[in-house]
Amino acid sequence: MDQTKLKELGIKLFEINAFKFGDFKMKVGINSPVYFDLRVIVSYPDVMNTLSELLTEFIKLIEVDTGAHLCGVPYTALPIATLISIKANKPMLIRRKEVKTYGTKKMIEGKFNAGDKCLIIEDVVTSGSSILDTVNDLRAEGLAVTDAIVVVDREQGGARNTEEDGVKMHSLFTLSYLLNVLREAGLIEESTVQSVAKYIKGAQIRSDGSFVENGGKVINELSRVGMTFEARADLAKCSLSKELMKLISIKKSTLCLAADLTSSEEILKLVEKVGPYICLLKTHVDIVEDFNDNFVKSLQSLAKKHNFIIMEDRKFADIGNTVALQYASGLYKISSWADLVTVHAIPGQGILKGLKAALNDPTQQRGVFLLAEMSSQGSLATSQYSAATMKMATETDVDFVAGIVCQSADLVTFPGLLQLTPGVKIEEGVDGLGQKYDSPEHVVKEKGADVCVVGRGILNAKNQADTAKLYRDRLWAAYCERVGISE
Ligand code: 5BU
User: Fold this and answer.
1) Which secondary structure element, helix H or strand E, spans residue 463, and what is its range?
2) Were both Cys, which of 330, 367, 371, 487 would link to 402 (CB 3.0–4.6 Å)?
């Protein structure tokens, strides 16, 4: 590798502000003394050319088995991957990044066969989660991925995290190397080198989003309630929680409508009005008197039109074998149309295994919300029961658990899981049958709710659309205040 060229490129990247030193708020919510933004390089064709030349040479030099294809992690690495593809004469694949609104849309563009190998190209790596997102989509299509080429490794645990998932990272630059080059060239002070080095040592990110301090002590500096949904989406392990978090950020809505009506026509009319304001539609299909296949088909097309996710609040609570049948069979065939379902933890892990076993189409993305607490007066869920539910959600089947239904902020700590909280109404109080209500602000800021369930607060309103919008806006304002961002 031509070290002079490499150093010159490092300096050039600094000169065009592809990285800077200062005090920057990172996506994960903590401050960093160094910030990379390689997007700027598209404005410098000479830099693009040199970078892609060096990367092509680097790939040859490290003798990595490049396989049949290249795939850049969207978006910054896309033009870089394109240039390498041309220089190395190796076909490229493109992974879509937009939120999938429904089922079967193709995630990978380009020609390939299952079993083909694909090399990942990425610009800057912190935790490695973006690489792993792309890897997961490629693997889901049957592609084999074992290596990733990256421009800059921030040395914060990305290499270890990707390795754990069977992806070896090869970086053209490490942050330490860049610091040395700039220091040698007299472009930065020794004190900057020291402070960045100290930060890097103290901010090692693990794949679960926690930080490991220098001495190996784990600190959960990333608090779920302090992080944005955008940042949390990177950490989610269940594809549906990831999708829901992205959808929430786009629609600026954490509102879940509980469509507890008994006529299919009335539900569809309501959802048509309220659809633009919700991220999630919650159903109880066993209360619908005229349930039929067209009803779920219409719900699905409304979900597509208004971009929301569907959850059947089935509250499964039986042994694995029975829930598998209840999920996929019978009158409702819930697994065929509900993206998410609610599940009691009381039977133990077998309930998740049973539900998973009922899914026979691997391309169907499905997930569950586990009930740790209920909103009703005198609920029997003890703190011990809720803690055991959390353990069940975080120790196994993590790809299947999208979140937790609960009432208190301290239960869900992992930022990749969503907290769903029912019992929300502008007028606080208790209904005649023991349902307890808190205001939108209270559930978000005090109870730590991410997605908030509102039923009668909207159903009984004179103008349901306006009321849904009001709930959406108040919940969103409370969330923005909670994480410290402007609306
Ligand atoms: P409401 O009309 O906003 O009270 O409706 C609340 C909905 O949330 C309703 O469909 C319940 O079945 C559901 N729910 C709940 O209220 N409390 C809980 O703890 C759970 C679900 Br879990």
Assistant:
1) none
2) 367
Which token pair is 385?
Answer: 């029961």
Instruction: Write the residue with the smallest CA distance to atom 15 of ligand 1.
Output: 422
Q: How far, rounded to the nearest angstrom, does the alpha carbon of residue 335 sit from its chain's CA centroid?
A: 22
229-483 adopts what CATH topology? TIM Barrel (3.20.20)
Neighbours of 91 (CB within 10 A): 15
Q: Which two tokens stand for residue 96?
A: 């879509």
Q: Is the CB of 440 within 6 Å of ligand 1?
A: no
User: Is residue 403 within 6 Å of ligand 1 at its C-beta?
Assistant: no
Q: Which of 313, 379, 418, 467 to mutate to test the pocket of ligand 1 (most atoms within 8 A of CB)?
A: 313
Instruction: Report CA dihedral (78, 82, 88, 93) to the nearest 10 degrees.
Output: 70
Count of C-beta atoms within a 10 Å radius of residue 435: 17
* CA pair distance 121, 78, nearest whole angstrom: 8
Q: Tell me: the pLDDT tens digits for 116-151?
A: 999 999 999 988 888 998 999 999 899 999 999 999
Per-domain residue ranges of the chain: 3-222, 229-483
Residue 233 CA to ligand 1 centre (angstroms): 26
Positions annotated as catalytic residues are 315
Closest Cα to residue 285, out of 302, 303, 299? 299
Per residue in 262-311, pLDDT tens? Answer: 999 999 999 999 999 999 999 999 999 999 999 999 999 999 999 999 99
Cβ 313 under 6 angstroms from ligand 1 = yes
Residue spans of alpha helices (H) in 126-238: 129-140, 158-164, 175-184, 190-202, 229-233
Report the separation in Å between the CA atom of 422 and the middle of ligand 1, taken as the mean of its atom positions: 5
What average pLDDT does the segment 319-344 reach? 97
- 457 Cα nearest atom in ligand 1: 3
Q: What is the pTM of this model?
A: 0.66
